[in-house]
Design brief:
Elements lengths: L3 E2 L2 H14 L2 E7 L5 E7 L9 E6 L3 H8 L2 E8 L4 E12 L2 H6 L18 E15 L14 E6 L2 E4 L7 E2 L8
């Protein structure tokens, strides 16, 4: 069966859908002793270029980790679609009150009873540099050298499919790669 090459725009559109579909993702940071710390966090809907905002406590371990090393990985999984996306990038801590109000999520009220104005509530602005995606329901994956996640890099000129990963081939039938 003949497959069709995937466009970067198509893949990014579906990456955005995965992020928007799931309520939580894993956030991975570099720990104090070199280990990777992973925790489940609630994220907000992605913005332009897949920028993701996350709310957290200013006293949290993740904030300490970001102060030491602001390279972060976010991992999203959609079980129904048999899909996942892993995004690698940089995290920036934001304490501006207007920004905290803008990105407030009502589900966070039990954690921050005084709302977005509390000093303990801060935001992490995650700016991606590259990502990996696999969506078996749509055939978004790499076929070279083995079936694996499709890689996309963020360049100054925009997002580009990474070379050497089969450039993503979609088939009309799940599991058939051409």
């Amino acid at each position: 069966m003949q497959g069709t090459a995937l466009s970067c725009e198509y893949v990014l559109q579906n990456a955005r859908k995965i992020i928007e579909t799931v309520d939580y993702c894993f956030m991975m940071t570099h720990g104090e002793f070199g280990q990777i710390n992973a925790r489940l966090v609630q994220h907000l809907k992605p913005e332009q270029d897949l920028i993701v905002w996350l709310g957290t406590s200013n006293k949290s371990r993740k904030i300490d980790d970001i102060h030491r090393n602001n390279k972060i990985t976010l991992a999203f999984q959609d079980n129904e679609k048999q899909a996942y996306i892993t995004i690698f990038g940089t995290g920036f801590i934001n304490t501006d009150i207007e920004t905290r109000q803008k990105y407030w999520h009502e589900d966070w009220l039990p954690l921050f009873p005084n709302g977005p104005e509390t000093e303990d509530y801060v935001l992490v602005k995650f700016i991606p540099s590259h990502l990996e995606i696999m969506d078996l329901s749509l055939g978004i994956l790499s076929q070279y050298p083995v079936i694996s996640a499709l890689k996309i890099n963020k360049l100054e000129s925009g997002w580009r499919l990474a070379g050497g990963n089969g450039l993503g081939v979609r088939s009309n039938k799940l599991g058939v790669i051409s």
